[in-house]
Amino acid sequence: MEPIILIPIILPFLLGIAGTKILFKGEKIKTFYVISAVTINLLALIGILNIEGAKAFHLLKINPFLDIYFKIDKLGILFALLASILWIFTTFYSLAYMKHEGKEERFFVFFILTLGITLGIAFSGNLFTLYIFYELLTLATFPLVIHAGTKEALYSGRKYLIYSLGGATVALLGMILLFSISNSLNFVEGGVLGTVNIDNPKLLLTIYMVMFLGFGVKAAIVPFHSWLPAAMVAPTPVSSLLHAVAVVKSGIFVLVRVCYFVFGAETIRQIHGNIYTSVLVFITILLGSLLALHQENLKKRLAYSTISQLGYIVLGIILLNENALIGGLLHLVNHAVIKITLFFCVGAIYFMTHKKNINEIKGIGKQMPVTMTCFSIASISLIGIPPTNGFVSKWYLALGGLTENKIIFPIILLLSAFLTAAYLLPIVVTAFFHGEEKKDIKKLDPPIKMLVPIILLTGITIFLGLFPNVLLHYIKSIVENLV
Amino acid sequence: MTYAKNFPLLMILILFISAFIMPLMKKNIFVKGLSLFTMGISMILSIYTWIFITKNGAYFYRVGHWDAPWGIEFKIGMIEAIMAMLFTMVATLILWYSVYSVEKEVKDNKVSFYYLLVNILLGSLLGMVFSNDLFNCFVFIEVTTLASCGIIVVKDKKENIAATLKYLILSSLGSGLVLMGIAFLYDITGNLNMTYIHKEIMNVHAVYKNTLHIAAGLCTVGIGIKSAMFPLHVWLPDAHSSAPASSSAILSALVLKAPILLLIKILYGVFGFEIIREFAILNLILILGTMGMIMGSVLAIKQKEIKRVIAYSSVAQVGYIFFGIGLGNKLGLTMAIFHIIGHAVTKSALFLAAGAMIEKSGKKKLSELKGIGKEMPYTLGLFTIGALSMVGIPILPGFISKWYLSLASIDAGEFMLIGAILMSSLLNALYYFPIIVNGYFGEENLAGKIYKSNEKSIKELLPLMMLIIGMIAIGAGSNKIMDMIRIGLI
Amino acid sequence: MERLLTNYFETGSMILFGIGFVTLLLHNNLIKKIIGMNIMDTAVFLFFIAKGNIIGKEAPIIKGIHKGIEGYINPLPTALMLTGIVVAVSITAFALALTIKIYEKYGTIELDEITRMRGD
């Protein structure tokens, strides 16, 4: 029964490869095929989660290190479900959106492939397997990033590739060094190093920093963030996926795995790894917000906002206490939902009006009332105003900071919240209150396939703000064993 | 099964004798058939030998029934058997590929000579692998040099001739140095049989320390020229890039590797682990290997022709092998031999794929090959898989070599060198990915190209596919291969 | 100095080797390069044969009576070098043939000029 857990990972690969033939058969077949592919995969995933016993599987074990090993645990389930659900929304959205971008078939092949790889990351049972999927993710998303095929796209794509591969290589260095110490890269709650005596804290610290920085590239930690704004040349569904789930969240997810499942909170405290990393995280949070203020292009502004918000999540991870980690994981989910909504709205504006700068969208709130309302709600949530989900996660992050007895953390959070307001609210204000009064305003809300995902996602944002308990309990049960 | 002991000699004889029948044949198709047939027979024989070795262990074979110190002796152990299998298999696949395409690069009346040279080349490479006699190895080196010069110059273009002459002169310089090294060893020990030399050296190494140093140095530099160790690689890019596609594949996959194996035999077999570890020569090899890894890749980035890029990449990859040898521990040596295997398969596939692209499109500059992925999607796809191995994507052999070489350098206490390994793999990405990306993507690049308009037929691509499948199998079965190599080393 | 003079075969071969090596590397003219190569090879042959030679003893060819093992020099290096000479000759022949080809195609046998011609 064990190999069954591979289904959600392998199915997208097969479907993607089969798609190279099927997708070209016509509009209806394509729509049906893509929707059914992602839905079936979600159903398969849920089905597998409900089967008792099927929790771990060695696909190929050659030796202690060359071991492709999958394991389902609570953290993995959280990430897998998040990805699969958001993938479905994106599918509907991009079916409509990609019409004007062209080359839809190629897009959907890689789109489905990437889903499989993301789930592979979620269910990897050791660092080596994770590394394989991490590299594959870069390769599979690369064609999505350079979808337009223009010179600019190719340039940004190259930047993305170099940053990602470079980061992975640096992380590989850490893996090699770690493997030579621990002889195991399996994920164990509390870390594999627990049994190994720390007789060389400096070396361990080096390894930790190397891995943190290496994997941090995908999590867009300053100074390795500049691929993310550059990758905004990609079509909107791609950028939303890159930001919300697939790429940057994979980076974060790997960091969680490295911190809590490979090193273990205790070890990191002993080698003082958290102190060095927290400096980087401060810079990331503030610099991301400050840079976002300057961006005229809507997508770029959101990209820098992502950098700063990712800083929050990483902060939650490296504070190494329970509340902070709860906050971090909550924000992982919440930010995904919020950011994907924001991107969808911006994409809808571009799709309908071909406007992508802030000064061009004066008064657009009246033309696209539904879209802009959703945008406003999501913005409010990202700033962290109740009753939205952004508030819940930031609350826990602040609590975590206070537990550490360092007042600087809540201050940073507050400051950054102001900055968030400063870069998001002007968009809302411009959209609704600027511009000339016109009598007969043409309604420009996007087609139903794009609008429904936006509305549903906004609904989730509010729902998670009002009733955070289901998610909160689940995350608490993950965190209990880790800290 | 004792008749199986004759197989190594039989392989060499079959290849040599069949080679000289070829010019007598009237039709090229028979020549090709004979060459492929004999290579196939050698492959089967080498597989038999390997099975024999796994069952019965290593053995010595007396050529012509003369006893060891006087007669020539073959030593057939696990490593030799694996190498013979690798050489014959790769050569068979390359020959299979060349059957369809050789006329495009070689004139009709020279085809029979081409296959003659290939057969002789393979025979002498196998001889170099098996022989336990230093002077015999030297003769095989010279035969290899002449034959490989022949398969480069056979194209009869301006640049081929210049490249070949460069190769020939530097090569004979190298073999002169090797011969000098052998002379020194003979001077001290009075023997040419490696086993006997090793015994003698164990007795006298304290007395003749300097002479041994000189001998080791001369052999290393001489073989370094043959196998393109970094600062001595100058002949390689010209020679490998101007040769016909199948020749380039044979040259970089096999001809570079046999001398390296000989070097391993000399350093670790003739001198022995204990003695060579105290020599400074290992550090020299380590440093040159590291430099080769980095500089080969850096130089490859600057190249404008696809085959030159791949040729410089060979310099970098050979650097890995020397790196493994220079580390001076068992794991490093194992990985050096493993990398010989992995690189032989990968690089031959890359050269054949590049050759197919050049042949079909008639262009060899990188800038002109943009958008080739649309016209030849399968060929570039196979190229991509090979390139991914070079870059070091897990499971493929390139990654495995890098990982274990890193562990080996930790064992040897050289932490800094891991950085060099990883840096080199990043640099690999820098020159392989643009080829692939520009091949498959980009509006401007793809404009005016018709999907699959230029693709080779599946029949012609089959050997290439088998090389790639073999490469993946080597990666997946790396543990077993490494175990076998370890058995051979003891 | 003393040792160099006693082993004058070896000394001479090393000097020859040096001359050949330098000629091979430094000269631009291909013919001179090939000559250098030959000098180098000859030096190695001399060195190798000197290893088997014992002054005052005969070549191992029996004339009249067999003098016993003590009477003759070691024939093995001589025999080996015969092979070496054959190899060297064939390589020289090949190199000369290539040089002729180069002269036909490029019109010169100076290496720097050829490099320049290929550069542009």
From TrEMBL, chain A:
Domain NADH-Ubiquinone oxidoreductase (complex I) chain 5 N-terminal: 66-108
Bilayer topology annotation: Multi-pass membrane protein
Segments traversing the membrane: 6-24, 31-51, 75-95, 107-125, 160-183, 203-228, 240-263, 275-293, 302-320, 332-352, 364-387, 407-433, 454-475
Keyword check for Transmembrane helix: yes
GO biological process: ATP synthesis coupled electron transport
Keyword presence, Membrane: yes
GO MF, any single term: NADH dehydrogenase (ubiquinone) activity
InterPro entries: CPA3_Na-H_Antiporter_A (IPR050616), NADH_UbQ_OxRdtase (IPR003918), ND/Mrp_TM (IPR001750), Proton_antipo_N (IPR001516)
GO cellular component labels: endomembrane system; membrane
Principal location listed in the UniProt entry: membrane
Alphabetized UniProt keyword annotations: Membrane, Transmembrane, Transmembrane helix
Subcellular location: Endomembrane system; Membrane
Similarity remark: Belongs to the CPA3 antiporters (TC 2.A.63) subunit A family.
Designated name of the protein: Multisubunit sodium/proton antiporter MrpD subunit
Top-level taxonomy: Bacteria, Bacillati, Bacillota, Clostridia, Peptostreptococcales
From TrEMBL, chain B:
Residues spanning the membrane: 6-24, 36-54, 74-99, 111-131, 137-155, 167-186, 212-236, 248-268, 280-302, 309-327, 333-358, 378-400, 415-441, 461-482
Record has Protein biosynthesis as a keyword: no
UniProt keyword annotation of Cell cycle present: no
Domain of life, per lineage: Bacteria
Keywords (A to Z) from UniProt: Cell membrane, Membrane, Transmembrane, Transmembrane helix
InterPro entries assigned to the protein according to its UniProt record, in alphabetical order: CPA3_Na-H_Antiporter_D, ND/Mrp_TM
GO cellular component: plasma membrane
Domain NADH:quinone oxidoreductase/Mrp antiporter transmembrane: 131-427
Membrane topology listed for this record: Multi-pass membrane protein
Cell compartment(s), UniProt: Cell membrane; Membrane
Any matching Pfam family: Proton_antipo_M
Similarity comment: family membership: Belongs to the CPA3 antiporters (TC 2.A.63) subunit D family.
PANTHER family (UniProt xref): NA(+)_H(+) ANTIPORTER SUBUNIT D1, NADH DEHYDROGENASE
This protein's name: Multisubunit sodium/proton antiporter MrpD subunit
The organism of origin for this protein: Marinisporobacter balticus
From TrEMBL, chain C:
Domain of life: Bacteria
Key words of the record: Membrane, Transmembrane, Transmembrane helix
Record-linked Pfam families: Oxidored_q2
Membrane topology: Multi-pass membrane protein
Organism: Marinisporobacter balticus
Family the entry assigns: Belongs to the CPA3 antiporters (TC 2.A.63) subunit C family.
Keyword Ribosomal protein: no
Main localization (coarse): membrane
Residues passing through the membrane, by range: 6-26, 38-56, 76-98
Entry-linked InterPro entries: CPA3_antiporter_subunitC (IPR050601), NUOK/Mnh_C1-like (IPR039428)
Name listed for the protein in its UniProt record: Multisubunit sodium/proton antiporter MrpC subunit
PANTHER family, alphabetized: ANTIPORTER SUBUNIT MNHC2-RELATED, MULTISUBUNIT SODIUM_HYDROGEN ANTIPORTER, MNHC SUBUNIT
Location of this chain's protein in the cell: Membrane
Gene Ontology CC annotation, any one: membrane
